[in-house]
Amino acid sequence: ITAAADAWARGAAALPKPWQPQKPVLPVEGMRNVLITSALPYVNNVPHLGNIIGCVLSADTFARYCRLRNWNTLYVCGTDEYGTATETKAVEEGLTPQEICDKYNAIHTDIYHWFNISFDYFGRTTTPYQTTIAQDIFQRLLARGFLLQDTVEQLQCETCQRFLADRFVEGTCPFCSYEEARGDQCDKCGKLINAVELKNPQCKLCRGVPVVKPTQHLFLDLPKLEKQLEPWLEQSWATGDWTANARYITRSWIRDGLKPRCITRDLKWGTPVPLDGFRDKVFYVWFDAPIGYLSITANYTDQWERWWKNPQQ
């Protein structure tokens, strides 16, 4: 309190001069460098107050605080544009997935600008950088033996002549009997679902009853990472600021043992899989979308690795 009173008495003239970062904002030796992201908003809707309060506003508040502290701060975000939900919305509106993305990216950009959200850069995931970086990470995983190939029982709509990715299927949850569960998870009980486990499944496009057929997919071999992950988590829990909920969920995954996770989908709209035998597939959006933070920064500056591959800073 005494220090605050002294600072108040000295007046604004005694305050440090505001830091004016270079453009683009890059890490500076000897300064505190802060990279801020907020969850990438999905592109298939018009954002409302709940989205802004629950997503970008907290990050915006923190970015403003960091700048007031004269910390060298970069705040990036952008629309998440690949995946089944975009294809579904395109069908609903009679547009192509690219047209849907262009339409809603512009709407998101205008709304955040109207609310004066202080992004240094607001981008999107449908860019060449996204393809390059995602495929590079995939190739590294492949070269290091962290990928598996397996046959998956998947729902196919014979009327639409296509395998149905998670969100093209609705049915009754096998755990809680909620009648509008998706093919990837139940929004009522929160459990992850394999689409073939749904009771009374329906194709969202034609409302036909799909049949189960085998198809080949690639999996991230998460069990192989457990021995490396556990000591990293212990160190991170000891030194980081994890919420109680994040600790609980992560511990439960480790306790139950990590399972291989499918990273490919039988879709057209997404980042192409650069591997023979799988070139007609794309990456699952939850493999692809987190890489959007890197690719959006790369679209902001070609020196993006100074932010994302620079632990000393």
TrEMBL record:
GO biological process per UniProt: methionyl-tRNA aminoacylation
Catalytic activity: tRNA(Met) + L-methionine + ATP = L-methionyl-tRNA(Met) + AMP + diphosphate
UniProt cross-references to PROSITE patterns, sorted A to Z: AA_TRNA_LIGASE_I
Residue span, Methionyl/Leucyl tRNA synthetase domain: 34-311
Listed GO CC annotations: aminoacyl-tRNA synthetase multienzyme complex; cytosol
Keywords: Aminoacyl-tRNA synthetase, ATP-binding, Cytoplasm, Ligase, Nucleotide-binding, Protein biosynthesis
Keyword Oxidoreductase (UniProt): no
EC code: 6.1.1.10
Superkingdom of origin: Eukaryota
Molecular functions per Gene Ontology: ATP binding; methionine-tRNA ligase activity
Listed InterPro entries: aa-tRNA-synth_I_CS (IPR001412), Met-tRNA_ligase_1 (IPR023458), Met-tRNA_synth (IPR014758), Methionyl/Leucyl_tRNA_Synth (IPR015413), MetRS_core (IPR033911), MetRS_Zn (IPR029038), Rossmann-like_a/b/a_fold (IPR014729)
Protein location: Cytoplasm
Family per record: Belongs to the class-I aminoacyl-tRNA synthetase family.
NCBIfam families: metG (TIGR00398)
Stated name of the protein: Methionine--tRNA ligase, cytoplasmic
Gene this chain is encoded by: Mars_0
